[in-house]
Design a protein that fits this description.
Keywords: Membrane, Transmembrane, Transmembrane helix. This is Carotenoid biosynthesis protein. InterPro entries: CruF-like (IPR007354). Pfam families: Caroten_synth. About 75% of the residues lie in helices and about 5% in strands. By secondary structure, it is mainly α. The protein has one domain. Strands 1-4 form a two-stranded antiparallel sheet. The protein has a two-stranded antiparallel ribbon with strand order 2-3.
Length: about 220
Amino acid sequence: MKSAIANIAASTKNRICITIILLFHLVGLIGFIVPSLTVLFIALVPWHLLLMLGVIVYSYDTLDGRFLLLALITFLIGFTAEYIGIHTGLIFGHYRYGGTLGAKLLEVPLMIGVNWFLLIYAAGVTLQRSRLKSRLVRILAGAMLLTLLDVLIEPIAVHFDYWYWLDAGIPFKNYVCWFTLSALLLFIFEQFKFKRQSIVAPALLIAQFVFFAVLNLMY
């Protein structure tokens, strides 16, 4: 009886989380497409990322120190990589952040660390739920998946002032570094050996792909 109640509660929680993810990505898509709404929705981007963070935290099976440690490590490594990137050009290429991602520390938006965590966790759980048994294959497949997502993100990010490139166009090095950093962070994710998580994180990853794919078609 307790098990059945727990399953119902978990199923309800997952439906709530997925509904929020789909609804807010759909509303955001409309806001970015309709010119009269674009300025408002650009201002809401950091709040959207925080909402998605809240959804992912809520969806996690049993919130514990390991989950929080992964979030902290991913945030710090992602933020540090971006700091090195914009101040030296050694990682990703020569670029600067615009105002869309909100408050910055040392010229790097704090939300970029949050975004790295969301992407790594979503990709990690997605591959965790796959039939791939090899940890190395999961890491490489996840890194490739996130690099493909970045291919969709880059033109939209430039268009909506997430960031802009000082190079002529988007350098190929950007994608190499995205793949490498994603693989490193997914390797760290694998070390935590989380129990199988719900479909909420994969739903977020799918929503991201659809969101940026549609915007690429529109712009």
